[in-house]
Amino acid sequence: MNTTKRFFFYAVSLITLGMLATGVSTILTLCFSLLSKQEVISQVGGRSFALETLSLSIPMLIIGGVLWVFFWRIIQKTASGNTTETGSAIRNWYLNLILLAAISTAIPAAAQFLQWLMQGCPGTQFSSGLLSMLIVAGAIWVYHYRVEEKEGQLSSVAKTLRRWYTYIISTWGLIWLSASLVQLLYTAIVHLPVWGTGTIQGAFWDYPVRSYLTGILLGGAIWAFHWLKLARGDTASTLRQVYLYLIAIFGGVTAGLTALIISLYKVFYFAFGGQTNYTGSYFQFFGWTIPTILIASTIWAYHRKVAEEETEQVKNLRFSYQRLHSYLMSLIGLSTLVWGLIELLRIPLGLLVNSLSQATVIGSSVLWKGYLGLCLALLLVATPVWLYYWNKIIKMVAAGGVEERSARTRRIYLYLILGVAIVTLAADSINIVYQVLNGLLQGTFGVSVLRNSDWSLQTIIIALPVLLYHWNILKSDQRLGVETVILREKTVTVLAGEEAVDLVNKIGERLGSRMRLLRYRGQPAEQLPEFSDEEINKLISDIRAASTSRVMLVIADKRIQVLPYEEK
Fold first, then answer.
1. Which residues fall within 8 angstroms of residue 165, CB to CB, at 6 or more apart?
2. pLDDT digits (tens, 9 = 90+) for 287-317
3. Fewer C-beta neighbours within 10 Å, C or N terminus of the chain?
4. CA Rg, the chain, in Å?
5. Within a domain: residue 197?
6. DSSP 8-state symbol, 564
């Protein structure tokens, strides 16, 4: 098929499949309603409405079904034994879109149906529509999953689309599972008879608990199937590294640290006497913060172990995302540390203003105890996080030399911090000068100037050393020629077949830039040999040493040619 014809067939197939699914679902809904002896859609018209619905669903079933079978048989006949057709972008968009839509429809229906079963199957609350939706969407998903599994992913587009589907659903399942676990544990803890007057009354086995159990069962099943089965062995995938480092590892660390900060703040606030009306329920926050810390730590530890085990298989690709993770965590640690120091300075400056004037900046002892508890919680969590990841970055730079210093992630990190610090200092300086001049011109110069400038003074005191420290790091990188290395980056075009896609990705990650890939559609080449790290390093050196800014790589005959060229 040509592209236009292929698009036509798949578009019509998608629309007619929707008609067929709607017709089958509607008829099943009516049948289940009759079997359960319920009044069929009594709220919107009763018997006459049911007959009208049946009159519409039958032609949708017949006409939509006949058309879908007709077009789908032609599609399948064309795709049989044709790798070009089975590997086409349109076909794989079609299959993965249906898988995503079907599972997105089936899972909410399955969740509500499972909750109905847990409730004891009350006849008055039976939803025939949910059951029919679950059956139809589930059947559609199973059929198209088996079609795609039988064919495999025969092109890079097919692999990429399958990966998007797999890691999107894996992420969904993991978040649903972990959130449901936290909520279930919190509900169980707050029902314990240890909270004094704050004990929650009522039955434990209510709707929220059934909902949390459903999330654990279904979310766990979704995550396990897609991550442990569909994503198994996909070690060279960029999306896998995004899932591992930026979603599971980074997300787990962020959630755990946030819960830890809240726990410490609440404890310090209580210890400093900030909680004046104490009841036993005050410490119920532990019911969700501790489970969050434990579950987030488990997610982090498991995915970190998986990432470590895959180190040798995808060394270069993994290192790029490991670097990104380290700089992200360092940025979060530094930002939280700066926030904690600013909050810490708020207390002495506020007390100073209070002592110099009758107006109060910190209005009560309870308020400053809250500030003190918050800043201590932030500092206790942020300091070790920032020191750990920043020392890790220092070791990476020491081992990687100029190449590591020139990494785009590092440049963005340094310039981002410098930019934020400079803008902050400029805004704070403007505010301070404004307050001084305004006070002098209006004859109100005094403690009010200090009171109105306290936040600017706090941020200047903290932002200035942060700016100077990172400015010195940037200047040190520049003295080693990092900016010069960046200016010599090349525009690289690659001519290669499907068998060289993984090699191209590895070269691009090592080079630190995205490459344009031209796919060779001639006679398939033999399997490429395994190129060592030394050979790839030499190739990158040849690319950077090329006499022009544009370079073409031709990967063929078990070797790689580096061809400098210019566009006229």
1. 96, 99, 100
2. 889 999 999 999 999 988 888 777 655 554 4
3. C
4. 31
5. no
6. E
